[in-house]
Amino acid sequence: MSRLSTDEEISRQLGDLPGWRRDGKSLVASYEAPDFPTAVQLIVQVGDEAEQMGHHPDVDLRWKVTHWRLSTHSKGGLTQLDIELAHRISQAAARLGALIQEST
Length: 104
Hints:
This protein is an alpha+beta fold. The protein has 3 helices and 5 strands.
C-alpha cells in the first residue's frame, strides 16, 4: 500500500505533469478531446489502466471535455498511485489528441 506523499514530493512531481494541479487532497486536470467519441475512448482507456492498478479516478464527462480528480481515499490524501495514474491519463490523452484544458 502506498504511503501519503509529502508536499515537497507532490510539488516536484507536478513539474512533470503539465496541466495537472493540486486541489486540496486531490490532483485535478481537464482534457479536451477532438470530439465526444474520443473523450469516451479516453475514459475507457484510462478505466482499463486504473482497473489494472486497482486505483480508480473520479471522472466527469461534459461533451468532449473530461475532468479528472485523483486521490487515495483510503489514505486520506495523495500517494504515488495518484501521480502514476496522472501520468497514464496524460499519456492516453496525448495518444488520442486530447489537449489539456488550462484552469481558469
